[in-house]
Amino acid sequence: MNTAMKTYDVRTHGCQMNVHDSERLSGLLETAGYVELASVPKDRRPDTADVVVFNTCAVRENAANKLYGNLGQLRPAKLANPDMQIAVGGCLAQKDRSTIVEKAPWVDVVFGTHNIGSLPALLDRARHNKEAEVEILESLETFPSTLPTRRDSAYSGWVSISVGCNNTCTFCIVPALRGKEKDRRPGEILAEVKALVAQGVVEITLLGQNVNTYGVEFGDRLAFGKLLRACGEIEGLERVRFTSPHPAAFTDDVITAMAETPNVMPSLHMPLQSGSDKVLKDMRRSYRSSKFLRIIDAVREQIPDAAITTDIIVGFPGETEEDFQGTLDVVRASRFSSAFTFQYSIRPGTPAAEMDDQVPKAVVQERFERLIAVQEEVSWAENRTLEGREVEVLVAPGEGRKDAETQRMSGRARDNRLVHFAVPEGAEIPRPGDMVTVEVTYGAPHHLVADSGVNGGQYAVRRTRGGDAWEALQDTPGSGRPAVSLGIPQIGKPPAATATTPACAVS
């Protein structure tokens, strides 16, 4: 098949896992000969790509509505160009399977979370057979890190340490769609991190559905803390982040590793979900609010400047006003820098969907608005305490939607707070991937403003290898994304050792 100048467009919904999977989908399509739609010059760019891939999420109730709405919008393009192909993957594809083709018969391919590597072959098969191809594997056969990847950023990268989840939260459908937890070996992870650093990456985020159970599969319950420390020994790696830990499995050795490893950032995202012990029990979350708060205290004892963020669900079945007040109490006590707040929505196939005492929508909405108000008050107060303090910002493109209007640039502080900073007239302009040291002049509820440079105060630019990597892409054709990198070979289970040295000689 001649795929020269055939274009693709991967549209991502959902979590960081999906974002990273989409990088792999892009890599697969690039190696199959497709060109990213955004990389085609505007005067030659078609309205719709030859292949459109939806990488879907199934966590929220509106996920399906959003997908079918998007598919409906593409139907006229498909009718106008029958050779165009539409593929649907990710968690919603894993859940709904052939239902997608029944509801949207103009879809060509449906693939699940365990077989993203099959996409090019499925597209070819659908084209040859002139009918939809649906392939859903029930378990992971090959860890996705073995696939080619087209990363979104030249200076920052995702690294999966595990896939799947062994928890049984009653509101969550992810374990049914992503499967049981599968851990990569530390050597394989560190090899990928080192490869990324060699390409100019200065920041990595370790990904797992529950990072602090990493290592249980191969018998080392302290493996995650060891992995953080090992990342600290990689020369050129300036920032290490991770998401997400589960409070039930959070251990002190991880806190100590964070505190003692300079390039592990002072930021922690740890889902609370509810501050009510009754609701936590009904959610089958195996911790209680007192344990959650003890973890918060332990983190702040060793890392006083840590910014802690969380996830909270409002309106879980059976939640009373007293339960909700418990959540507000924990929010006030935790002093989260920010929170991702969600209204509970029924997900078919989860135990919570069958529970009695579903909370009326109007009550959920009213509680949701109160929670947002309390969290915004906390966030604003916490951000105001940073006024007058210096922060080191990793400059990023696209973080500040109003940067053109405000004549500022944006990026993330070490604690992951969003910072908008002003560049003094005539001063060096940093590149994405460079570091800038500025002083916070105002703490807003959702970001920090650092105009110290234009007020005669601190403004210093440190050029980095990440900035060099970003700059190197600007003179090359394409969308400003790094070239496809080959997958990292899977180490897998080590073979049985063959003794070459007498046992008594082994130290």
In DSSP terms, counting alpha (H) and pi (I) runs of 4 or more, how many helices? Answer: 15
Q: Please estimate the helix content.
A: 25-40%
Order of strands, main sheet, comes to 19-20-17-16-15-18-21
Major beta-sheet overview:
7 strands, mixed
Structure, explained:
The structure is a single chain. By secondary structure, the protein is α/β, with parallel strands linked by helices. Helices cover 33% and strands 18% of the residues. It has 15 helices and 21 strands. The strands form five sheets. A seven-stranded mixed sheet has the order 19-20-17-16-15-18-21. A six-stranded parallel sheet has the order 2-1-3-4-5-6, sandwiched between helices. A three-stranded parallel sheet has the order 7-10-11, sandwiched between helices. Strand 3 (51-56), helix 2 (63-80) and strand 4 form a beta-alpha-beta unit. It is globular, with a radius of gyration of 24 Å. It starts with 6 loop residues before the first strand and ends in a 33-residue tail after the last helix. The model is unreliable at 489-507 (pLDDT under 50). Its EC number is 2.8.4.3. Keywords: 4Fe-4S, Cytoplasm, Iron, Iron-sulfur, Metal-binding, S-adenosyl-L-methionine, Transferase, tRNA processing.
